[in-house]
Amino acid sequence: MTTFTSTLPDDIIEQLNEMSGKLAMPKNKIIEKALKIYLDQLIRAEYIKSYSQAAHDQDIITLAEEGMSDYLKQLEDETV
Questions:
Q1: Residue 3 counted as domain residue
Q2: CA dist 18 to 9, 14, 26, 74, Å?
Q3: Residue 40 maps to a domain
Q4: I need a surface site. Which of 1, 16, 43, 46 has the fewest CB within 10 A?
Q5: Each residue of 26-68: pLDDT tens digit?
Q6: pLDDT value at position 59?
């Protein structure tokens, strides 16, 4: 595990100290969990942005429509 040193505003440190005591959890674990949640949210935001951009890309739309047509044909062929 790597050691990381940073500075935080006093009010955040106060909240962190308070929660650490209430939860009986080390401060580094609270920071670790909070950072993990935040990074996951950033990744989701990237996916949302890329899907939003793809929704306006005619080449992507055409490819998806062709794929759906092929998929529906395969379903029809298997049900016969």
A1: no
A2: 15, 6, 11, 60
A3: yes
A4: 1
A5: 999 999 999 999 999 999 999 888 877 777 778 877 877 777 7
A6: 81
What pLDDT score was predicted for residue 65? 77
Write the DSSP string, 16-33: HHHHHHHHT--HHHHHHH
Tokens 């959890």 correspond to 25
Range of the domain at 64: 11-79
Q: 8-27: per-residue pLDDT in tens?
A: 999 999 999 999 999 999 99
CB neighbourhood size of 70 (10 A): 10
The answer to whether residue 6 sits within a structural domain is no
Residue at 69: amino acid letter: S
Count of domains observed in the chain: 1
The model carries a pTM of: 0.60
- Is the Cβ–Cβ distance between 46 and 39 less than 8 Å? no
Can you list the alpha helix ranges (DSSP code H) found in 1-80?
10-23, 27-54, 58-79
